[in-house]
């Protein structure tokens, strides 16, 4: 199956926020009124009801000039997704397109994914059932997997009027990003393709005008070592140990029965066959 | 020594404080185990509806987590002497403790074995205690940042998940053996009444904790089972 990539060229973005609106519209997400945060940016980061946020960054470049940088931020859809690894209910899975989605019916709201995502894009939402009982579910961008299923592109991509976003075949999009970086090197010497290999590459690939840290992104994001040790080692070894001790006591029980039969009528009151 | 005498004479092994501390520890551990089991393995997801849903399971897990922290305090406050003895025993290791294990393996599988002289706690109980203390520290220490994650750096919370898992895996593996020995295994089974009532059969205490028993005899606390007088008066 073809893997798809959402290509985001931040240098073409004009900060119109149509991507945010299109996302809310398609995914039926309620508005989240916020206080003034000191810039034109509407939300500090993605939330359970705001799956993409347009970042507005006032950055002083190498020449001492002000650069007004924009970035459409949302889930990266990692190839090795930490959220998928740590989910105890297998509620998070990879789709055939390479996107990472959360099954809302299976999610138990434990928050392991929110704590382990290297990009901090997943959030929990509080709900109340008809009896007033509270429960939580984890939410994030789905890359409009439901639209891809229907042969459509993600809502944010479709609505982008500057061509800053495109959606297509993974290799073609990565090539396009590399080509674009070459074109803009004169204006943005620090420009780079952001497709971090620490998480096996991502399915949202960025052309960044500046270093990742300028956008608040990790330079080398990866699945936390603790998560690898926890899920690939501690848990299977722990389960094996429970099995091993259970087998040992079952073995001991059977052996005791056999030996006490052999002892033939020896007392069974705990005095045992010793001394 | 007749069986009748064996079953009749009892001596106090544990204080009421220990009995309570042990019971609170056991019940809360078991409750924590049950309320987290569906998170540990999907095989037990049917427990979610039993526990009133994932949110309720989380709430119960937190309530029992607080209860799980109390046994040490119960023992320290109400029987500091007993607690001190436990601590002292845990750091006292002699050659006979190593010998204990080779005999214990024979005993475990029902083979002929000799009792190695032990003090109040035998070497196996000391190992069990040390592992339970270590895992309790791991589980409680990692549980705090998992619960109050907003006050801790992300890395601490992430390592907390790992350590919670390690602590749990280690402690449950040891507890399977601990419960088997106390409830099922015929030679150590009388110890079970010790943690429930505080009292154990005198002959059993003498066999399993000879040095401790003899010390108590010297102090005049326990009957001397070898004394023909005692046999005559208190036996049968």
UniProtKB/TrEMBL annotation, chain A:
The keyword Repeat applies. Keywords: 4Fe-4S, Iron, Iron-sulfur, Metal-binding, Repeat. Residues 4-34, 66-97, 98-127 form the 4Fe-4S ferredoxin-type domain. InterPro entries: 4Fe4S_Fe-S-bd, 4Fe4S_Fe_S_CS, FDH_Electron_Transfer_Unit, Formate_DH_Fe-S_su. It is found in: Cell envelope. Transmembrane segments: none annotated. This is Formate dehydrogenase, nitrate-inducible, iron-sulfur subunit. The keyword Aminoacyl-tRNA synthetase does not apply. The lineage of its organism: Bacteria, Bacillati, Bacillota, Bacilli, Bacillales. It comes from the Bacteria. CDD domains: FDH_b_like (cd10562).
From TrEMBL, chain B:
Keywords: Cell membrane, Membrane, Transmembrane, Transmembrane helix. The keyword 4Fe-4S does not apply. The chain crosses the membrane at residues 20-39, 59-78, 127-148, 160-181. It is found in: Cell membrane. Its main location: membrane. Residues 13-188 form the Cytochrome b561 bacterial/Ni-hydrogenase domain. It holds the Pfam family Ni_hydr_CYTB. InterPro entries: Cyt_b561_bac/Ni-Hgenase, Di-haem_cyt_TM, FDH_cytochrome_b556_subunit. It is a multi-pass membrane protein. PANTHER family: FORMATE DEHYDROGENASE GAMMA SUBUNIT (PTHR30074:SF6), FORMATE DEHYDROGENASE, NITRATE-INDUCIBLE, CYTOCHROME B556 FDN SUBUNIT (PTHR30074). This is Formate dehydrogenase, nitrate-inducible, cytochrome b556(Fdn) subunit.
